[in-house]
Amino acid sequence: MNAVSEVSIAGSAGSSLKALNDWVTEVAALTRPERIHWCDGSDAENAALVAAMEADGTLVRLNHDTHPGSWLHRSDPDDVARVEHLTFVCTPERDEAGPNNHWMAPADAHAKIDALFDGCMEGRTMYVIPYCMGPIDSPLSRCGVEITDSPYVVANMRIMTRMGAPALARIEREGTFVKGLHSTGELDPDRRFIMHFPEELAIKSYGSGYGGNALLGKKCHALRIASHQARSEGWLAEHMLILGVTNPQGETHYIAAAFPSACGKTNLAMLIPPEGYRRDGWTINTIGDDICWMRPGKDGRLYAINPEAGFFGVAPGTSAKSNPSALASIQSNTIFTNVGVTADNQPWWEGLGEGEPVTDWRGDPYDADTRPAAHPNARFTVSAKQCPSWSPEAENPEGVPISAIVFGGRRPSLVPLVFQARDWTHGVLVGAAMGSETTAAATGAVGVMRRDPMAMKPFCGYNFADYFSHWLSFDDGNNKLPQIFHVNWFRKGEGGDFLWPGFGDNLRVLEWMIGRVKGEAAAVETPIGWLPAAEDLNLDGVELTGEARQKLFGFEREGWKNEFDSIGEYLDSYGPRMPQALKDEQKLILVKLSVS
Ligand code: GTP
Ligand code: SPV
Ligand code: MN
User: 3-60+75-234: which CATH topology?
Assistant: First the structure.
């Protein structure tokens, strides 16, 4: 593969690249690769890498008549999701990481993981990937360098980030970058760690080649390290999609929404308006589907960028009906991970709605009694620009102004379709108190209710109590902050079915939110916030049973009392670090709930 070269930039580098070059030399001394390849992000480099991966079976060619430029990767069957129990935040003091993180002392963590890295790249190529999270010329963007021995990681990082020469130039200009060291190692779950060193702006990940464990720009950098940086620099790094809603009058409102993993961010970000809305001229513009960095602008509003350049989306359930924009995006130049394949070699997954699998995600003949064709956390990696609803505003270096922040999770009972927080402090409590059922995006049991504040439980790089204080600090009397809402697309009826149609129909809820932001839409005040009556939403064309109306728009006082008792216990579990303002808000609501 002649694109692989042993380039050292030491000789030619300006002094600001010296730190990078010294680090690469140090890592090479530890991992002892046969070759070092500095990635430039070019098409020729990618073509050479893909050809080499096809030759060694890392990538399987899909049907290039139906899916030009698309490939399948089958990961190790024990390496199919994030591993939260093996993910550590290594701050000098345990309390800085907080009860929300697994913690290890930095020196111990380095020693433990460096022992695994010792000689691990012998006979292999070490790739150096300079990347930029966010538009290359945005003051909100931040750069990093990932060193990896996985060409699959290189190919994914090329889609997910602005990778290569322009990023290296920015690093040279700025002189600072996040250091991410990754090796797939033996893919042995017993020799696997994902470690973060926020004070050192460093990440070390060993033993997994999958998604958020291995594409270090994503959850490791853009959330765990960035949330830590954001705290000291006065901004927010969040697990949120960003979308623009344009109404028939041509006004666009940008909304950022935090839902836990596999709870609907990609779907909402690419929403297709229901028929009547389309006719009236409503459109959706996609800025991002997973991560949002935002900070107050000169006018006091929060301005947001999507630090990513691609989507690493959940494949199962993606269909022409549920998410036509995602499906259209992944017809070409897409890497599929752990999906099944049809007889004519097209990618296939449960919920696709057409075709039939012959081979499952492990490469075995498909047998419905053995396992699903696609792993439930099977994913596609594709450039955001291939999405029909992609907005050029995603490249705006200033970011887009946010009108509303939405929190939500999978709540089969109690929680209504939507409500609005009274003010910022209440909204922060709504986010802090979020709960959701676990999904296949991480290893472990699925469908277990857990608190997942702001959808950041697996991703906040420091103590949640300090994180909530940071959120509260934005209400400084000068900022013009967004309204905060909570949604639940996953409320179930007695029969166990979802009561809300969801997907495109979620625009009905977004329209109500924008109406609230503009002071036009009606709502009823309750102790948990402002709730719409069913009549306050445009439900033209939606059939809802009596049970659905009652549960989606009702307020269940007794259930909420129990919920607020449990929220109080949760806040208390953080001890005295938990901001008093949140505890006061929780107590105030509990008192209101008790007065009927
Ligand atoms: P990550 O990439 O893991 O962060 O996930 P995500 O939040 O982007 O989730 P995604 O949009 O991929 O959705 C995950 C699952 O939720 C899919 O199976 C979807 O079909 C389902 N889903 C998304 N939106 C809705 C909805 O409005 N209603 C219902 N019932 N299911 C939904
Ligand atoms: C998530 O789990 O929230 C994801 C997938 O978006 S991963 O990149 O694996 O974190
Ligand atoms: Mn995610």
Answer: Phosphoenolpyruvate Carboxykinase; domain 1 (3.40.449)
